Structures are given as structure tokens and as C-alpha cells.
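This week, think about what follows.
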Amino acid sequence: MMTWLLIKINKRLSKKYGWRPSWFWVRDYNEKLIKRIKNLQKRNGLFPSGLCGKKTYRLALLKTLLDIKRRKD
């Protein structure tokens, strides 16, 4: 899929589910974000589409919450 289209879809998905590029340690919707999403998906047995949809969102949310908890402990 074309990068510009993945970026556009990720912007829509982030509004729908409430995630931000900072969850993936990037500042903006760009190629780096797509690569980070794909890496997360690969490491966790999901199809590496580069899109943060429902399953990837849940996984990213869980990892973000666990990171916050670890920092507090």
C-alpha cells in the first residue's frame, strides 16, 4: 500500500480509537510511525499492516499502560 494512504488511514484510526503517534515514540504521522507499528505487530504475532486498528490499538494501549506502571514502581 502507498505510504501516503497508510498515513491518512492512521490519522483516521487515531481519531477513532484515541491513540497518538507518541505511543510509538514518534512525533508525527509519517513513515517512521508505520515502521514502528509494523515492528510492534510482527513482535506480537499480528499481520504487519502498518495500521493501528482495533487489535494493534489494544496491544499498544496495554504496552503503554504497563510502561507507565513500571515507571511508577
